[in-house]
Structure formats: structure tokens, C-alpha cells
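User: Show me a protein chain along with its predicted structure.
Assistant: Here is one chain, sequence first, then C-alpha cells.
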Amino acid sequence: MMLRICQVLYSRAGPSTGAWQPLSFDGGAFHLKGTKELMRALLVLRLCAWPPLVTHGLALQAWSQRLLGSRLSGAVLRASIYGQFVAGETSEEVRGCVQELRTLGLRPLLAVPTEEEPDSAVKTGETWYEGNLNAMLRCVDLSRGLLETPNPTGNILMQLKVTALTSTRLCKELTSWIRRPGASLELSPERLAEAMDSGRDLHVSCLSSEQNQHLWASLSRLQRVVQHAQAQRVRLLVDAEYTSLNPTLSLLVAALAVRWNSPREGGPWVWNTYQAYLKDTHERLRRDAEAADKAGLAFGVKLVRGAYLDKEREVAQLQGTKDPTQPDYEATGRSYSRCLELMLTHVSQRGPMCQLMVASHNEESVCQATKRMWELGIPLDGPVCFGQLLGMCDHVSLALGQAGYAVYKSIPYGSLEEVIPYLIRRAQENRSVLQGARREQELLSQELWRRLLGRGLWVPN
């Protein structure tokens, strides 16, 4: 009933009162951060913009360990890249990082740095995936435990990598089957949802006996994570990956949505990620949003530009298939803008039944989102939030947070051995983002010079 009342209120909402006031991303909010933090950020962002460091990151890490020893090499990493992009290793360190973010008006989006790469060696048995399940469940508990109040305002969000719970080989196999005519009935979201709810074995004709057993175990793991997350009031944002995997990932999200995104459950507990750099994203997003509306399901979306462009083009060229990506950066920007407009319109019509994370480091996209929210009467701390990576794009995150918007920082955590390979893979996927962070570097330099020449250096207690 409350959701329905909110929908009616949203449908009647118009532009907010008062004139539109665009945000300023000029680095003015950097005054909230200490000098040491700004110096580290400038150093690390400049290092990450150097292509050889990103390309040969794993080899350089191994070389530094041989040259400096594990302890000294680890200390250097903790003082630089690890310290910039990672919350810490222990729950206490994560809590400390999150507390600092909260004082800046920012919120945590925890991420377990575990995934299975598409070309990695095949895992035997379910042990590795079961271990990842336990890590995901602990992340749910940590996400909930970070809040100091029993009834928090706003959403508690957490990232989920499906390829930590099921094999990429199975995802590829199912994707090839999904793309065939007539496969929709056997692999419908409703059938998978029923299998997850009932706990009965599921048989898919295109899979071997061993693969069917792994599929059933994977569904069971996903069900356990979402069930636990819903009980802890934590909403799960499922990451998108490569196009060879995404149809299967979307099918699994749709199956989970049938069970967990109904109005009686209290809004979307499972969100999907849509990558604007793919040519078909706008059409898929439109279709999925309309299908959720027609079925009476809540719909949660994380909208990103995408991080696998170079790899997707390379695979398409090797396989002689059509390139699925947008032709250039400008086309990707137009795609993101269209998807953003589509989702904001749905949010304005459906209210809390439709929720969106604008996951972007692009100032134009953020400005578009904030302006359209004002025009459509969407509240600042409502069903639309913003997301950026920890340690990057702070001039945008801080400006949004200080203006009252809901802003989340994606926060990996774990040991050096777990997180550094994960960070290097993310850096290799986000080369354009890292190399395009020149404006942030300029703003950091300006603030540091201002403190040095004007008011002195401020070092927080």
C-alpha cells in the first residue's frame, strides 16, 4: 500500500520549486580532505595514467617483491595504490574507511574482489565457489553492520559478482544456448526461480549431467545470498561482465527478480547492470523496464558506460563476429544519455518501484541526471543515487554528497594478495577512465598549491 501511495505521489510530481542550480565540480569540496590524502591521490592517479604500469602491473608487482621483499613491497603498495583504492583488510579497517566517507556525505558500496576470469583454468568441484559464497554472506553482514542505527535511512547496497558463484564456462555454454531460437521456454526466468524456491534438481538439455549439477548448485548459492541480503535489508547490484557471459547473467538476475523483486518484498533487492558502450543496451533496457512494469515487479538498474571495450573488440575480430560496441567515445556518451533519460522517466512514473544508480565519472552525465531529477520532481535522496570508485572522481562525489544527493563509493576490501590482482584487472579494463582523469589531477594540483602558497598545509588530526 505504501509503495502504491508513493507511486501516485511521484506521478503527480513536477519540477522542484525554485530555479535550477547546477553543481560546481571545480574541486571546491577538496577542502574537506587532508593534505596527505590529496598528495597520495595525485601521485597514484598520475602513476595509473602511465600505460606501462597498467599493462605490466602483475609482472611489476612480482618484480618488486623479489627486489624489495614481501614486507617492504607490501608497505609501498599499502601507502600508495592499495591505500588509495581499497578500504582495508580487516572489518575494523573497513569501518574506519566508511566512517571517513560518512563524514564527507558519502556511502559505502562494498565489493568482494573475487571473480572467475573467462579464460581461467576450469575449477574442479564446488569448493572454490562455496568459499566465495561464504565471503559474499560475510560481506552482506559487514554491509549491514557498518550502519550505526537499526533503522537506517536510504538503501544499503552491495556489489555482487555472479562469476564468483558460478563458472564462466557454464555461463558461456548457456549464453550460446539462449541465443538459439526456441530456447526461451526451457531457460525461462520463471522455471529457474521455481527451481531456486523448491530446491528441486533442474535439468537443461544442452548441459551435461555434471554441468546440470553445477547449475543447480550455482542457483542454490545465488538464492542463499539474496535470501540473506533481503533479511539484512541489503540490496544487491549484480555486475555486468563480457558479452559472452551477460545473457546468462541477465537470465539469472531475471530469475532472482521474479522471486525477490515483487512489491510485497519492498522494492528491488536484485539490480542488474547495463553497459552503455554496447550497441543494444538502450533497447534491452527499454524492454526489461517495460517487462518489469507489466509483471508488477520492482526494477533496479546500475547504469555504467562499460569497462571491457578493448577486449570485446579484440574477441569480435578474432572470431570474425560483429563488433558489439559503440564506434567511439562520443557514441557511448550519447547511448548513456539516452539510457539515463529512459530510466529517469521510469523512476518519475513508478517511484520507489524503479530505482537507479547513475554510476559515472563523467561530469556531463552527472549534470544531466541532477537537472532531469529536478525537472521531474525526483527527490535528491530518493530512488536515484550516484556511484563512483573509491579513490577516484572525488571532486564529483564530494560535490554531490555536500549537495544532499545519495552518493556511493565502490569499495573493495581484502588482503594485498586478494585485492592487487583485482585492482590491476580493473585498471586494465578502465584505461580510458584512468587516462581521462587529467581534470581531477589538475584540480588536486590547484588545491595543493592553494594550501602551500595561500593558507598553508592542513593535516587533519
